[in-house]
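INFO  loader      accepted 1 record
INFO  loader      residues=275
INFO  predictor   begin
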Amino acid sequence: MRIDAHVHMHGQEKDSGEFMKRLEMAGFDGAVVFSTAPDGMFGLGKTGTPKERLEKLMTYTKGRDTLYPFYFLDPTDEDALEQVKLAKEAGVCGYKIICSHFYPWNPQAMEVYRWIAEQHMPLMFHSGILYDGINASGKYNRPCEFEPLLSVAGLRFSVAHVSWPWTGECIAVYGKFNAFLKRNPGGKAAELFLDLTPGTPPTFRKPVLTDVYGNGFDVEQTTFWGSDNVAEGYNWEYAKRIRERDEEIFKELRLSEKIKESIFCENFMRFMNNN
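INFO  predictor   done
INFO  writer      dumping tokens
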């Protein structure tokens, strides 16, 4: 089984049947689907109220056992806690955040993370450079800015794109989280996962993956893969091409078949279900 763990809704989605067909053509059995981004992000303008965005997400993924709905929120919104609670009641599998105008350690946001951790639910972050027009947002998304999340006991979160172009910094931060987790097992520490979704230009892809799997840290059970595609009009040819490219790199790196299978399914399922 393969999961595309990084697919965005843009608000134009209709029935998910065509999406499922395109996933299959790309070689995937299911996907993580993020709700439409909050108002104003990426210059999208009005994308709907939190309730409207949540309803669209749940309607789109309803009845699809291998589509995993993640609610996209801004944790600095005044009603952010109410939003995550409503999303949990609606049946989401987890949450998505992009720090477009705030640091990950924003005090209000940290309260949201603590609540998510208490529910034993996963949280997916963007990390690395953010292509969002003229907004100077890169400073918010550097890996070191996630260090304060060490204090959120039991939080399971991922950083996307291996934080490119700050991949080395990402690996160092991962090592710190991993060491702390080993000293504090049993839900007493946060656990960091690495989302391999490309944000990396093609010429940098092999060096990045080489760094991830050659750093000496235990990453074999904490890396998973996504395409950064969109649900409506899912570009299956692109997804298939970059999956096969990365599989070839994994082969060159001599990753075992077990590790490769884990990257495309098992690791994400553990991230989502904590088992």
